[in-house]
Here is the input.
Amino acid sequence: MLELDDLCKHFDGIRAVDGLSLKIERGEVFGLIGPNGSGKSTTVNLICGVFPATRGTVTLAGRNLGGLPPHRRLNAGISRTFQNIRLFGELTVWQNLWIARRDAPSEETGFMKNWFGSSARIREAIDETLEFAGLAGRANDLAQNLAFGEQRRLELARAVSARPQLILLDEPAAGMNREEVEDLKQRILTLKNSGITVLLVEHVMELVMGVTDRIAVLNFGKRIALGTPGEIQGNDAVREAYLGSPDVDIAEGSRHA
Amino acid sequence: MAIDFIDVVQAIIDGLLFGSTYALIGLGFTLIFGAMHKLNLAYAASAIAGAYVGLAVILMSGLPIVLTFVLGPVAGGFIGFGVYITCFRYMPATNMLAPLMASIGALFFIDEIIIHATAGSPLAFPAVMDDVFLEVGEYGFRGDLIFVLVTSLIAMLVLLYVLFGTRLGLATRAVSQQVVAAELCGIASHRTNATTFAITGVLGGLAGCMAAAAVGVISPLLTVPITVKGLIVTVIGGLGSIPGAIVAGFAVGGFENLFLLLFGVNQRDIYVFLLLFVFLVFRPNGLFGKAINRD
Amino acid sequence: MAYYFGLLQTIGIHTLLGLSAYILLLTGQLSLAQVGFFAIGAYVSGILTVIFEYHIVPGLFAGALAGGFFAFLVGFPALRIKGLMLVVATIAFSEIVRLFFFNLNWRVMVNGVEVGPDSTQGFREIRFYAANGWDTLDVVLFIWLFVILIMAMLWWLDRVRAGATLRAVGADELAAQSSGVNIVAVKVAAMTFGGVIAGLAGGLYAHSATYVDHLTFSVLLATFAVAYPILGGLSSVFGTLIAVIFIQGVLIEGMRFLGDWRNIFFGLLIIVAMNFRPAGLLDGNVVAQILRIVGRGKGSDGERHA
Here is the structure.
């Protein structure tokens, strides 16, 4: 599905991502964790094409994405959410989804209809996405007037609205309470069941451990471990990287790290 | 008419000397941009207004003429502070358009006050050392321009000291980098910004006096061209870059005078603008500008 | 009466000029190049009707296309840079255009009279309306036909996906890109459309004034062009219209008795307006309220995607 090969990104001599290779299988929920500054967000930005890689390749379903700008990568099937919420605040919830909306190949429409056509045609699909995100009643509210949790859900809905094959979630649970995290977990599983591959970058361990199939751990831009949640929890190198000591349980200890 | 090599060099020399005023104006724009990431379009107008106030006080009080070059900057400082209060202090931090537009309003306002007060006619401005003419080989240095250059250089040195040698300068840089963090360290961001505006105002007042002294007259018609040249200097130097503004100021002065010699007064500015476009295409971050930040 | 017709012409032309800046402001670009496109439209259409004796409609059409063409050309390099750099670059573009026409000398004998742009003397013989027997009312209606057409187009644009996309680019470029928006294409399209509107406005101006010279196309007019939509607010196309009526109608014409104090007033008013209404007169909340009063149910948002 998604393959990173020897991916590198250097900023003024700092190696934010340093020779990262990963293979994410179709349909899995893949976790990417690591201490602050370990290169997780940079990896997401490299996959999305926010900036070019210093070296290495990003391949999606056999197609090399090198040099494609973010909007072309969305068309190729990758959508994302942002760590710090980035909505179109002065547009309505509904419009936020409308912009990101991609049609399925069978419904391909012409340029005029796509940009200047009426919204009735795609209303149903968008309403469905709103339903999924628990925002059905808020379609006509301005995004900036939403509560924090709703804004997070809107970000997710906007990414889903693009009908991606792969969705990148950049710390979607930051600032959420237990209940909201549980909701998010259910939504991620719903995505998985509908055949979407998920790359989850997250600090909140109860979410990562509860929802992912496999996890890769980054430190200093390098992969230091790869395995199932159970394997990762028992990995000494990971504990060391996170907490400087191999004696602490990650799932509890790093909740507030 | 054949243009001699000597003429070319002489034109560049005169231009470089006059360019020190552009450097001062460019510094003002760049400092305010560096501090607040906002553009104060009223800046050149307040510079000219400062020079006017200085001149007016001298003419009315009969004090020695040289004091214009002290009173002008002082007045410029107060005007800069006023612009901050009226156009920047109470604006939402994330709104870029409102303060920009307000500063355009301030530009109109200051310009019209000057026109109203002087009935729109230009005033003679005192030149200093205009009877001096320094000859070096085949080239000459106009005394009044040397005065402009030396004064500007001193002002820049003082400015650099304030910015990099004092706690005030440190506060300014802290606020420009991280407002919230700076405030948590006990730095009042509004007061720091106000001080930045006052300091740049002083610089502007001086630049206004220098420009007027070099031209020999002062007129509200100077504001828009100086605003535009100052902005060009700021962009060529790199937004927010202090050495960039200084170097670009001299460069624009030199090129401008060279273009004047080569293409005449009607077409001079076309080539100055083309110079700007060359920079925008090939070095969009300016001479000393930082590359685009990560994330 | 002729006086009021003249004022209506000015308001119409300035509304178009303001709207040409409005569409770019929606994408978050502050362009002072609109006056350059305005000048290009004025000279191109003037040259066509005067030197080549075209009818005004193809003349205006060509002027608008020329404005759009140059906007398209400027768009690519200019939109690589952002924010304040763009402000400066677009000032420079407008000044280059102005200085080009300042130096343009193209005098031609047409029907025994020498006509055409005469560099510093300006371009004095743009008399299509008078030569074809249009009275001032005809001209007012002609201009407002275009104003209404353009306003209707922009109003409709806000109700389709293209309009929402413009605003999305203005709100957050990275988020827009990540939502699949080709921001370069959107910005160049907005720039081109803005150039067409400004070129059209320039052509109308040249024929109303019968005389254009480089002084008309100053940085001052460029700042007016962006001042209208900023003061009026970007939430609705009507904001620009209201700002033009207020500035041109009330402030400039209505306060003539103030003499040159009026100009001082103008600057002061901009400062005060921006302090109290930083998002413009018609900001999102006001628009929503007005629509609620008019009885559109849930307000602007309710009918935006209807």
Notes: The radius of gyration of chain B is 19 Å. Chain B touches chain C through 46 residues (CB under 8 Å). The mean pLDDT of chain B is 88. Residues 15 and 257 of chain B are 5 Å apart (CA to CA).
